[in-house]
């Protein structure tokens, strides 16, 4: 039997279900209002309003998700509250708490869980810190069903109100129009992880048998290079990671704000530190200024040698391995729904390096390397006019790498180039450059059942054919998951491009969180459906 539902985008219209009954903290500020007002009004094409035929079981699940919207939002609130910042040593206990809370949630759904110790981490100050355990879990063991491996991360980027947040970053806050949930990790990646739990709960409470067996890898170090995880994958290659048919990751974003997409490529990342030391302690610039080469000016000189004004990486040999763009590839960019002026508005810039050329902008984000300078540790960065000469500064930058580029080769080129820049500088200060972590890029086969199932799932939920996109960010473990399972990996993004992952005021739209829970349920349904045929 077929059940007919209205295309859910309609619910973006003003007749949105009232959220006044929701026991949620609401936040009204001019900045959020401005943000909401500035969003280009949705003009759905006529096909958006077509009726969509959804299989009866999925229809029931979708209704369950809608009915439990408030509780699902509370579920996200519970985990956003935990400041699980993997890069901050003093927050390590919170990362571990987040891992434990998630393990409990999985157990409640009936999963068999294991917390795997992945050893220790050496900090730059020489200290050793225990890495958060990785959750490996299994739900279902039916040999007649396919097995889907789900990966997600439980750690987040740092966030503080003083950085320019309008709300407390670790207190999930609903915007006054009831459409957006602000909080660190809301989109990256606690929201999507909770969507998986929502989807599974929905099957169970609707008394519908899960169409697949599930395995989970949830880690707490993704934002810091997934330390320890690769070794765990290798150690469990012939046990936990055996017998997996499909891998699914929800840890990226739609290309825009309106149309869902599926993602088949990621750039890799090579992260570098440059340490420069000029004294044994910080110095008064009135007493010591003018008598020594200062570490900060040395560092700025070195950092300035990395990029030219057009954003071209100046490190020789680095671009040698980048594959040329083929005519076939050029065609792929033509039909992708990407609006350059909306993109500029979202960033808040009126000038991009590649003007209004959609294909060039997308290629620069997806298939060419880029270099970004992230910050300088030790340099005076607070308010006020402190007259200090910092004794030691550490510059941090990363290079997003693309297919055919190898992290080790990138490391060699960077170290060789910066050492020569340093030698020419002629400073007597102490200088060190090293790569902290390197991860390869990843590109997948979009003709695999993993993708056809996900496309059908998008049609069930959004009644639209998704764009197939690549992503400029990195999920370091993706390629290892592909290797260790020997099967196809898909990225199913849940949030929008304007979610502000890693930035101030990170959010997830309520619509994306709720429809995203349905999407993952529909994906499992379609994997169950299409696996038998493949
Ligand atoms: N949502 C994925 C993501 O944000 N990944 C990080 C991974 C990373 C690697 N080193 C530091 N962070 C990214 O920046 O792409
Ligand atoms: Zn992430
Ligand atoms: Zn992230």
Structure notes:
It is a single chain. Helix 2 packs antiparallel against helix 15 and helix 5 packs across helix 15. This protein is α+β, with helices and mostly antiparallel strands. The longest helix has 22 residues. It is built from 15 helices and 23 strands. The relative contact order is 0.18. The N terminus is likely disordered. It folds into two domains: 321 residues, Zn peptidases (Aminopeptidase), CATH 3.40.630.10; 129 residues, Alpha-Beta Plaits (2-Layer Sandwich), CATH 3.30.70. The strands form seven sheets. It has a six-stranded mixed β-sheet with strand order 4-7-11-8-12-22, with helices on both faces. It has a four-stranded mixed β-sheet with strand order 2-9-10-23. One zinc ion binds next to loops.
Please outline the major beta sheet.
6 strands, mixed
User: Which residues sit in consecutive blocks of at least 5 with pLDDT less than 50?
Assistant: 1-51
**Radius of gyration of CA atoms, rounded to a whole number:** 24 Å
Between the first and last Cα atoms, what is the distance in angstroms?
Answer: 24 Å
CATH topology of the largest domain: Aminopeptidase
The chain-level mean pLDDT equals 91
CATH architecture descriptor of the largest domain:
3-Layer(aba) Sandwich
Strand content: 15-25%
Proportion of residues in helical segments: 25-40%
CATH superfamily caption of the largest domain: Zn peptidases
What strand line-up does the widest sheet have? 4-7-11-8-12-22
- Cofactors and ligands present? the ligand NCC(=O)N[C@@H](Cc1c[nH]cn1)C(=O)O, zinc ion
Number of strands: 23
Domain count: the total is 2
Number of helices: 15
Principal-axes geometry comes out as globular
Per CATH, the class of the largest domain reads Alpha Beta
């Amino acid at each position: 039997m077929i059940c007919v539902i209205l295309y859910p985008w309609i619910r973006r219209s003003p007749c949105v279900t009232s959220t006044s009954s929701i026991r949620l903290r609401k936040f009204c500020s001019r900045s959020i209002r401005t943000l909401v007002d500035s969003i280009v009004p949705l003009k759905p094409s006529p096909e958006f309003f077509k009726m969509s035929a959804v299989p009866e079981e999925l229809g029931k699940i979708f209704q369950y998700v809608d009915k439990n919207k408030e509780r699902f939002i509370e579920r996200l609130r519970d985990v956003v509250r935990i400041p699980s910042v993997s890069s901050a040593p003093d927050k390590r206990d919170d990362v571990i708490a987040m891992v434990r809370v998630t393990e409990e949630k999985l157990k409640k759904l009936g999963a068999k869980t294991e917390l795997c110790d992945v050893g220790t981490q050496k900090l730059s100050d020489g200290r050793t810190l225990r890495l958060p355990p990785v959750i490996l879990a299994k739900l279902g063991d039916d040999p007649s069903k396919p097995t889907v491996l789900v990966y997600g991360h439980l750690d987040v980027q740092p966030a503080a109100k003083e950085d320019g947040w309008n709300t407390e970053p670790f207190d999930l806050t609903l915007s006054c129009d009831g459409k957006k949930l602000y909080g660190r990790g809301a989109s990256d990646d606690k929201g999507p992880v909770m969507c998986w739990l929502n989807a599974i709960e929905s099957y169970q409470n609707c008394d519908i048998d899960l169409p697949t067996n599930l395995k989970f890898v949830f880690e707490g170090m993704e934002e810091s290079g997934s330390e320890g995880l690769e070794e765990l994958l290798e150690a469990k290659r012939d046990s936990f990671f055996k017998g997996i048919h499909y891998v699914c990751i929800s840890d990226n974003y739609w290309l825009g704000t309106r149309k869902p997409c599926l993602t088949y490529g990621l750039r890799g990342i090579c992260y570098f530190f440059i340490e420069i030391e000029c004294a044994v302690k910080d110095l008064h610039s009135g007493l010591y200024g003018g008598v020594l080469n200062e570490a900060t000016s040395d560092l700025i000189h070195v950092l300035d040698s990395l990029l030219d004004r057009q954003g071209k990486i100046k490190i020789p040999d680095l671009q040698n391995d980048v594959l040329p763009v083929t005519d076939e590839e050029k065609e792929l960019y033509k039909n992708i729904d990407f609006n350059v002026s909306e993109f500029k508005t979202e960033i808040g810039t009126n000038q991009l390096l590649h003007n209004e050329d959609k294909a060039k902008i997308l290629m620069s984000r997806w298939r060419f390397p880029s270099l970004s300078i992230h910050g300088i540790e030790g340099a005076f960065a607070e308010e006020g006019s402190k007259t200090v000469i910092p004794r030691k500064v550490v510059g941090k930058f990363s290079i997003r790498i693309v297919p055919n580029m190898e992290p080790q080769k990138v490391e060699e080129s960077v170290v060789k180039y910066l050492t020569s820049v340093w030698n020419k500088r002629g400073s007597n200060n102490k200088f060190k450059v090293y790569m902290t972590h390197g991860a390869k890029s990843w590109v997948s086969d979009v003709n695999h059942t993993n993708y056809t199932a996900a496309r059908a799932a998008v049609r069930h939920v959004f009644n639209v054919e998704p764009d197939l996109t690549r992503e400029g960010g990195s999920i370091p473990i993706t390629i290892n998951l592909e290797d260790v399972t020997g099967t196809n990996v898909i990225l199913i993004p849940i949030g929008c491009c304007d979610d502000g992952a890693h930035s101030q005021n990170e959010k997830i739209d309520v619509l994306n969180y709720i429809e995203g829970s349905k999407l993952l349920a529909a994906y499992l349904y379609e994997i169950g459906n299409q696996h038998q045929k493949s």
